[in-house]
């Protein structure tokens, strides 16, 4: 089994675990980002308070709205990303070693090369998995964007008795049909442009992570490859710090992406309808101010940093366990 495949499978496993733990925070953050208005630009109402409101008004299940496609998307995204990241990185390392053999460089790849490798892997990931995340965003924000319409419990009169009838469930098929009706197949790639620009987020994240990992290993005079020699908690901290730095830089693009992917009801004010990335940025600045680009940032920082730290920790442990099992399986017992 190749290193790329091992890292891809381990990344998918780590991503699923991180997603399960932090998903309610993602739902609240998606609602904060797509909330129109001048108030609560940083989520000042408090994440916990908003989670309680969702539970009280819509039930526990809505905190996990879109969880199934999200888990599929996480497994696909992390698997695709780590697979191509490791494959591109292996090629970059081979090229560096080839240059070293002719007296150029020290045989290792630098921060710029790590950034390029991560950017290539991220671009492939975005183009392949963007439709899944459009569906997830629609499902996470469905109640929020439809509170004035049929998504609420509807009273009907039957046999002179007023009854409350739950609306039909809003599932993946409904979202896909809705998107196709709005924009055809291209509807599944809503927000892909800012998402491609946001490739810089994991690129910055991995650049910081690799740099910190390299420096830490150098200080310990470690000659091993990967995360061997570091504890799971140290990997957790490195992942958290790397993700924090990347999130602070790229958060405004995350808000624009969420706005484009969320449903834009016909009943909404025209200023809340976005024709594209440029139109969304212009209208957000004009009608909501610069603070709108940082709505829900505190929630996102907590969620993304925690998720990234868990993902790195679990992924590295899975990689080490997989390589150990493969090594043992190749060793034949002596007789």
TrEMBL record:
Keywords annotated in UniProt: Membrane, Repeat, Transmembrane, Transmembrane helix, Transport
Keyword Chaperone: no
Alphabetized PANTHER family for the sequence: MITOCHONDRIAL NICOTINAMIDE ADENINE DINUCLEOTIDE TRANSPORTER 1-RELATED-RELATED
Membrane topology category: Multi-pass membrane protein
Lineage, opening ranks: Eukaryota, Viridiplantae, Streptophyta, Embryophyta, Tracheophyta
Family: Belongs to the mitochondrial carrier (TC 2.A.29) family.
Superkingdom per UniProt: Eukaryota
Transmembrane segments: 115-136, 227-251
Identification of the protein by name: Peroxisomal nicotinamide adenine dinucleotide carrier
InterPro entries: MCP_dom_sf, MCP_transmembrane, SLC25A32-like
């Amino acid at each position: 089994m190749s290193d790329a495949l091992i890292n891809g499978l381990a990344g998918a496993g780590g991503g699923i675990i991180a997603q399960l733990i932090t998903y309610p925070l993602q739902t609240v953050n998606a609602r904060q980002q797509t909330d129109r208005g001048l108030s609560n630009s940083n989520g000042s109402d408090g994440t916990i308070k908003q989670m309680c409101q969702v539970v009280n008004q819509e039930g526990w299940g809505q905190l996990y709205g879109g969880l199934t496609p999200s888990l599929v998307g996480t497994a696909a995204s992390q698997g695709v990303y780590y697979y191509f990241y490791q494959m591109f990185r292996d090629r970059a390392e081979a090229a560096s070693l080839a240059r070293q053999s002719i007296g150029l460089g020290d045989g290792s790849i630098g921060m710029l090369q790590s950034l390029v490798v991560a950017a290539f892997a991220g671009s492939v990931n975005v183009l392949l998995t963007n439709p899944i995340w459009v569906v997830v965003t629609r499902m996470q924000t469905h109640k929020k964007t439809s509170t004035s319409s049929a998504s609420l419990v509807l009273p009907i009169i039957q046999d002179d008795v007023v009854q409350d009838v739950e609306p039909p469930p809003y599932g993946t098929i409904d979202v896909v049909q809705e998107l196709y009706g709005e924009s055809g197949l291209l509807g599944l790639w809503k927000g892909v442009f800012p998402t491609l620009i946001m490739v810089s987020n994991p690129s910055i994240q991995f650049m910081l992570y690799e740099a910190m990992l390299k420096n830490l290993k150098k200080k310990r005079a470690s000659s091993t490859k990967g995360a061997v020699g570091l504890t799971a908690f140290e990997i957790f901290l490195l992942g958290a710090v790397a993700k924090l730095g990347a999130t602070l830089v790229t958060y405004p693009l995350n808000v624009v992406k969420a706005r484009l992917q969320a449903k834009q009801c016909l009943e909404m004010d025209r200023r809340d309808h976005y024709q594209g990335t440029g139109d969304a940025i212009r209208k957000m600045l004009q009608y909501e101010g610069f603070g709108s680009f940082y709505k829900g940032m505190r929630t996102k920082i907590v969620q993304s940093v925690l998720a990234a730290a868990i993902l790195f920790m679990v992924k590295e442990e899975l990689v080490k366990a997989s390589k150990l099992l493969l090594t043992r399986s190749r060793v034949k017992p002596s007789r």
